[in-house]
Amino acid sequence: MIVVSILLAFAIDAGWDELLERREEVEVLRALAEEFGANRAEAASTIDAHERSAVLVVGVSLLTASEVRTLPPDSVALIIASMASPRTFDPVRGTLDALIGSGRLELVGDEALRRALVVFLNFVDDSQEDARYLAESARRVWDRRVALGGPWQGPAPDLTEGACEAPVRPSACYLDATPSALIPAPTVEDLERLLADREYVGQVRQMQINARRYLAEIRRILAQVDLVIDLIDTSLE
């Protein structure tokens, strides 16, 4: 009876520990699910921003001189801003970094999910080099723009209704909505001067090449994010 009682106590204790670990794993998985949902939205937004910029840059290159002169002021500002758009993917990874930093990634029981999480981090690290090339290209475009009469006011931030009421607010919510008198709005003549400058146009083209390379990395990250989310959902079932 004593031996049976001791073995039963050990079994109960082991079962309790296993239950606590499972509860902790579920909490971690839910936190990861929230983070990777945000990462999916951020990656998709980054891709969309660069694709819209590419459409504008290519579109203006196909316009005739007379068509450029008929562009409205808002379009001029948007086109010039799109010529140097260094938007990058900023992942949310607090829970994942905490797990790896504390050596507790094994808390995630699904081996396939653990591997997918590590691959995600590797993809993010791989994208950093292309992000640096993108930033350097944008800086060269901006510098040449200054030499040609810039900078100018950019287009007004495109904020969806209620965006500034969300828990995580876009940085545009904190911008001063009153345009500075020191920074003029671009005119059609400014755009014509930029398009006539071969050095500037060449730098914009290089910017677009670097952006395409960077987008390939972000699309790969987005596919990995989707895989992670599917594996998390399976683990929570």
How would you describe this protein?
- The protein has 7 helices and no strands.
- With 237 residues, it is mainly alpha-helical.
- The model has no long low-confidence stretch (mean pLDDT 86).
Number of strands: 0
Radius of gyration: 25 Å
Structural class: mainly alpha
Helix content: over 70%
Largest sheet entry: none
Provide the succession of SSEs.
Answer: HHHHHHH
Compact description:
The protein has 237 residues and is mainly alpha-helical.
Which properties best describe this structure?
mainly alpha, elongated, 7 helices, 71% helix, 237 residues
Secondary-structure map:
Elements (H helix, E strand, L loop, with lengths): L1 H60 L3 H5 L3 H10 L11 H8 L9 H37 L40 H9 L1 H39 L1
